[in-house]
Amino acid sequence: MLACALLFCTGKAVAQHINRLTANLDGETKELNINQKFTYVNSSADTLNTLYFNDWAHAYSDKNTGLAKRFAEEFKKSLHLAKDDERGYTKIKTAVDNYYQRLDWDRTNVKDIIRIILNRPLEPKDSMTFYINYTVKLPPNKYTAYGYSSKNGYFLKDWYLTPAVYNGKWQLYSNKNLEDLYTGITNTTINFIYPKDLYLTSNFVQGATSKFPQGQSTILKGENRKSCEIVLQSDQNLSKHITKHVVVLTDIETTKYDDISQNISIERTMAYIHENLGEYPHKELLVSTFDYNKDPLYGINQLPSFIRPYEPQFQFELKFLKTALRKFLEETLFTNPRKEKWVNDAILNYLMIKYVDQHYPGQKLLGKLSKIWGVRSFHLAQMDFNEQYPFLYMFSARKNLDQSLITPNDSLLYFNQKVANRYKAGLGLAYLAAYIGEENVGNSIKQFYQKNKLKEVEASEFISTLNASTQKNIGWFFNEYVSSDNQIDFKIKKVKKKEDSITVTIKNKTGTNIPISMFGVKKDSVVSKYWFSNIKDIDTFTIPKNGEDRLVLNYDQKIPEFNQRDNWKTLNGFFSSNKKLKFQFLKDSENPYRNQIFYMPVAGFNIYDGLTPGLRLTNKTLLQRPFLFDFAPSYAMKEKSFVGYGSFRYQKYHAKTGFYVSNYSIGGSTFHFQTNSRYSTITPAVSFGWRPDDLLSNKREFLSFRYVNVLRDIDENLDLETDPDYSVLNARYINSNIGIIDYSSWFIDAQHSSNFSKVSFNYEFRKLFENNRQLNLRFFAGKFLRNKTDSDFFSFALDRPTDYLFDYGYLGRSEDTGIYSQQIIIAEGGFKSKLRNPFADDWMATANASFNVWRWIELYGDIGFMKNKGEKKRFVYDSGVRLNLVTDYFELYFPLHSNNGWEISQPNYDEKIRFIVTLSPKVLTGLFTRKWF
To answer: What is the maximal distance between C-alpha atoms in the chain?
Structure first.
């Protein structure tokens, strides 16, 4: 390790901070030993007594950093479960001033920001130089893309101390794996020492490499840069391309696309960037596959390579263009990436949209797949490539989860941060270009870039540049489109034809005051186009006749509108206005000019019906919509009769937070619950939902009411102790905060029927502790307020509820013996052992607990009291081993001891083993998609 002192001196103010580092990478310990000399220039008008530095390498140090908490929000627990030797951290060794006096420093609450307390004030326009000696322990790259790999590779970003930005206030942001370090501009020189047999790639300019017996060193220089990125690998895959405008280093490639063609495409894309942005101020631009993989082309582009639907040239150019634009802007346009990331996103995605419009105007979203028989009839196959931008943005908007573009980057939902907000930003400039002209927007982007490159710049400067480019009022762009999460939705309310003109009434359904375009269409050709502004509610306009047979709002889909199904009116009479009905195989994107009904095969299983293949009919598209119907008539192979389910549902969103949603539905189902015995249900229901202001929070509250009507057709050989038909009014309040580290959920349930009334309370708690032990607790209490029943069918159950409301996915709901009777669903008592007299017709109170002893192996125990009418209360308990393979989805329970005694020593032990299994595709896919929303 190199010795280092921290030296203070006063010097003449310079334009940028000056940074000098010597970093020595130890391949055995995975540590960087760093000597850093830093000259801090106070360019503010304030006297500074403290300085702040970003130490984002320390974000991997424990389970309570901003990074660890962000991972927990995304249902990732890899960093929480990491061993100490798999963590990353920074250890500062010395801090002394010019006179070898120690400087005090500490870490802020977020842990990956360091505060240095100066020994004397730093005046405006003055500078100070100091040295820091520290060690950075690199983490493995299994948490993020950065760290060391199992193949002896290294991926370094934000790996050394960088100055936080002070602009009247310190801008202090924790590392949350969002690629948004906000640091001061520096002139940096790094002497990087690393093991031999590794090749170094960097976004900084590489000087000469010197080799010596113990390793090698490379000089890296970056003027007016933010941060140095380094990739070390055993192979050198980068190729150098000397284009007309800049030297490009890249390893991006596409199969079946030769080197000469790649050279031509790189030249073309770099010429496009130069034309739209201007000169790149650095010597080289690094465009790597590593960077592309961090921000790929989302959507169909991520299909496996053997079914890639695009021509190699198109595939290569878009991969290269997106990565090159991203690096170009990151390295030169310095907005606040945590608070004003939308500016870079808008420019990047607008230029992506424009590139496809210019060079690939006929490109379809599904590419070559759109020409295949059976696929080409889908509306998705007919969509242009650039229609993916509003389409993917609507995934968020239709779920009422869209967020404004000025939402801080760390407050965005994962899907919004990765996809929706980026696409909305690009769409905004495309929308503005359609309104004020592409030339005006293009000139504004170039002017803004040329004026502000390599400078700290705010979004307000971009807005001012756009305003100056047109005489039209575009205040709505920032005030309504950028700053608001209000949805955009217009409709043509009515049209009236006159002899030489058309009067059209347009309704603004959401009140978002922005311009709306209207097209006159004759057959499939546009014959007229108009823009209407300042429609706050309803407004009427008169346009000349020009042979139109349809009027369509937002025909070119430049505006990311919430609902386009009511955007058109025919001018050929009432009967022509009716949308045609279209039956289509499998789910598709929404076609605003058709009433779509999708049909697809489905299959279910229970032991009485056997396999139940069927045909599902629904209007559910790839995007969520308010009104849904869903019917699935099926055929029970074993019972040789028809079964199935069906429902109508209407969902109304009220706001983003607080009271945010109402659901109204009526559904029914019919299946068999025993051989030759059928049940049918008809259930009207209503529910209301609440969520907190922080959309990242998993906290939810729901209040639901339903009226379950059960009709049963019983085999004459069965002797039921209850009436075959009954109805139950059920009300439930749910309060949940479901996280992967901390989990809590409780509900109060009330049921009323002609023969009984009862209430129950259920509480679940899970905690993953810092020692990687997980505790699971559950408490249940239920009480009959009135019970006139003569059987246990409606009673509380210790281990296997009768499920008289038919809520649970039992494979054999009436089984008392055999493998299907061993299926358990944790409800009511939650016991795992089968005890004698497991029902209570008066009250029951139980507690369930488990904790892990090694990974997914847990010990569990259940205790409780239960009471039947006319009997004394009874104490019950059981215990055993739980294999918690996938919580709530696949679990095994092995009883050890209970009221039955030592069960493990009793005969037929295999019949006592219980299991949880989930077969629902919807539930299983939710396990993998939950982090996105």
So the answer is: 100
CB 552 within 8 A of CB 570: no
Residue 11 has pLDDT above 50, yes or no: no
Question: Using H for helix, E for strand and C for coil, what is the string for 447-494?
Answer: HHHHHHCCCECCHHHHHHHHHHCCCCCCHHHHHHHHCCCCCCCEEEEE
Gyration radius (Cα) of the chain, Å: 33
Query: What pLDDT does residue 97 have?
Result: 78
Which residues have a Cβ under 8 Å from the Cβ of 76 and sit 6 or more positions away? 740, 931
The whole-angstrom separation of Cα 438 and Cα 351 is: 11
| H or E segment and range at residue 528 | strand 525-532
**In terms of pTM, does the model score above 0.90?**
yes
Contacts of 779 (CB under 8 A, 6+ apart): 761, 762, 763, 845, 846, 847, 848
Q: What average pLDDT is seen over the chain?
A: 92
Helix H segments across 278-402?
Answer: 289-294, 312-332, 342-359, 379-382, 388-397
Shortest CA distance to 706 belongs to which of 736, 724, 682? Answer: 682
Contact status, residue 185 vs residue 16, Cβ threshold 8 Å: yes
Using one digit for the tens of pLDDT, what is the confidence trace for 633-643?
A: 999 999 999 99
Phi then psi for residue 103, to 5 deg, are: -100, 135
Nearest to 92 by CA among 76, 81, 77, 103: 103
Run of H or E residues at 922:
helix 921-929
Cβ neighbours of residue 85 closer than 8 Å, sequence gap 6 or more: none
Question: Helix, strand, or coil here: 595?
Answer: strand
489 contacts 398 by C-beta, under 8 angstroms: no
| DSSP type of residue 102 | B
Q: What is the pLDDT of residues 521-564, one digit of tens each?
A: 988 889 999 999 999 999 999 999 988 888 999 998 899 999 98
Residue type, 395: F
351-373 pLDDT, tens digit each: 999 999 999 999 999 888 888 88
pLDDT tens for residues 304-315?
Answer: 666 778 899 999
For 854-888, the pLDDT digits (tens) are 888 999 999 999 999 999 999 999 999 999 888 77
Query: How far lies 752's CA from each of 707, 711, 724, 795, 797, in Å?
Result: 10, 17, 17, 13, 18
The pair phi, psi for residue 298, each rounded to 5°, is -70, 150
Of residues 388, 369, 250, the one with CA closest to residue 311: 369
- Only one residue has tokens 């029943």, namely 789
